[in-house]
Specification:
Strand content: 5-15%
Mean pLDDT: 85
Number of strands: 8
Low-confidence stretches: none
Distance between the termini: 91 Å
Largest sheet: 5 strands, parallel
Order of helices and strands: HHHEHEHEHEHHEHEHHEEHHHHHHHH
Strand order of the largest sheet: 2-3-4-1-5
């Protein structure tokens, strides 16, 4: 029985064998054309784990007759890079070197800058990979000398042939007859979150855990669910995946889609992260609902407090309630538009002295200045009186504009009637 990891045994040797990434390596794909032309371009592969980045780097090395060296930036140093460069032009690397640097985001700016020297003098062709957005984590000078290719999670239908191939190899390896319940291959392909390596490893684990019955091994759906449990979700606290999910939750709330909101909330719950969705829910209550339903923030705050007190799994209930409430509530962005406009003026220096009428009343006690002249609104009909509140340079500025929802339009009509009655 082979002891070689199954994922290595079935690693594709040509672009046609690679599953997924059709947008890059399908017929006419830019990356495919570059590889077929024998490119020596520096590249950055960006995307989730298990989507073919290392595999395609291997294929490029073979196509260009370069010696492939692999380093992982989590453990590698510049000395490791220099040691590799030392083999340029020797029998160790007669056709040149392709350096595959995994997780480049873990190299600091100085380390990344040092790579430029070797890239520019042709010592190496660099393929760097990262699971984080390279435009945030990779030094600009290095980015400008590289082409970025985004790898995507592999769809289950594309992943299925690799799973079936892996199961077929296991069947050939097995000393006992091996079979599986209908639907198991697609179940594995679906549950592994577009990660080919994880799907292949799941096949291997499922085989190793299978119990012999009546002289044969049967892979069951129940066992497949256990093996792939929690694997369908890519989540790294503080990483791109977390921020993408937070963005998706917020946009689903704003877009009034309760089903999508519950889906992304469930992904956070599965990852055990309560803090991030709570922040998004609280923010959405003011940013997206705001004055259209002012009570929303109080209700959401109560739901968040309850969730934090309960902890998981019970926290799912008040958070789901908050998500549904926000997704189905009337929407208004008048709050965020108003404060953004006001803050923008302040940043530009459009301020001015606070009107004398609004200054602290203690200034009048000196007797050196005119009477403050503040009009107390509660002493006037309808508790309103016309007076200037903004500084002179921006006295006619309008920051808040009533939204077109029922609540804000009712407030607009109320104040229009009062101010019109006063002759203003």
């Amino acid at each position: 029985m082979s002891t070689r990891p199954l994922a290595d045994e079935i690693r594709p040797q040509s672009l046609d064998e690679v599953v997924g990434q059709r947008h890059l390596i399908g017929p006419g794909g830019v990356l495919r054309r570059l590889i077929d032309a024998g490119t020596s371009a520096n590249m950055i592969f960006y995307g989730p784990s298990g989507t073919g980045k290392t595999t395609i780097a291997n294929i490029i090395a073979n196509k260009t007759n370069k010696t492939l060296y692999r380093l992982n930036a989590t453990t590698a140093s510049l000395q490791d890079v220099k040691d590799i460069i030392a083999s340029v032009g020797t029998l160790m690397a007669p056709g040149g070197i392709l350096l595959y640097l995994d997780e480049i985001q873990y190299f600091n700016k100085k380390q990344q800058q040092s790579l430029l020297e070797f890239m520019e003098n042709g010592s190496i062709t660099l393929i760097a990979s990262t699971t984080e957005n390279p435009f945030f984590y990779v030094y600009n000078a290095l980015l400008s000398r590289s082409t970025v290719f985004e790898f995507k999670q592999v769809e289950p239908r594309e992943l299925l042939p690799a799973v079936e191939r892996a199961l077929g190899i296991l069947k050939e390896r097995s000393p006992l007859p091996l079979a599986w319940e209908e639907g198991v291959p697609m179940q594995i392909a679906t549950q592994c979150g577009g990660d080919v390596r994880k799907a292949i490893n799941a096949c291997e684990l499922l085989y190793e855990a299978a119990e012999a019955k009546n002289g044969e091994l049967l892979l069951t759906s129940e066992d497949a669910l256990q093996v792939a449990q929690r694997s369908a979700m890519r989540y790294d606290k503080g990483g791109d995946a977390m921020y993408d999910m937070a963005s998706a939750l917020m946009k689903s709330l704003r877009g009034s889609d309760p089903d999508a909101a519950l889906h992304y909330l469930a992904r956070f719950l599965e990852a055990g992260d309560l803090v991030t969705p709570c922040r998004r829910l609280l923010c959405s209550a003011s940013e997206d609902i705001g004055m259209a339903y002012p009570q929303a923030i109080a209700i959401v705050k109560a739901c968040v407090d309850t969730a934090m007190q309960l902890g998981l799994p019970e926290a799912q209930l008040p958070l789901a309630q908050a998500a549904i409430l926000l997704a189905t509530a009337p929407k208004s962005n008048s709050v965020v538009e108003g404060i953004n406009a006001a803050w923008a003026d302040v940043k530009r220096g459009r301020t001015g002295d606070i009107p004398r009428e609004l200054q602290n009343v203690h200034a009048d006690s000196t007797g050196l200045e005119r009477e403050q002249g503040y009009k107390y609104p509660h002493e006037f009909p309808n508790h309103w009186v016309k007076q200037q509140y903004l500084p002179d340079p921006i006295k006619k500025a309008v920051y808040y504009r009533y939204g077109d929802n029922k609540v804000e339009q009712a407030a607009a009509k109320y104040w229009e009637a009062i101010k019109h009655a006063d002759g203003h």
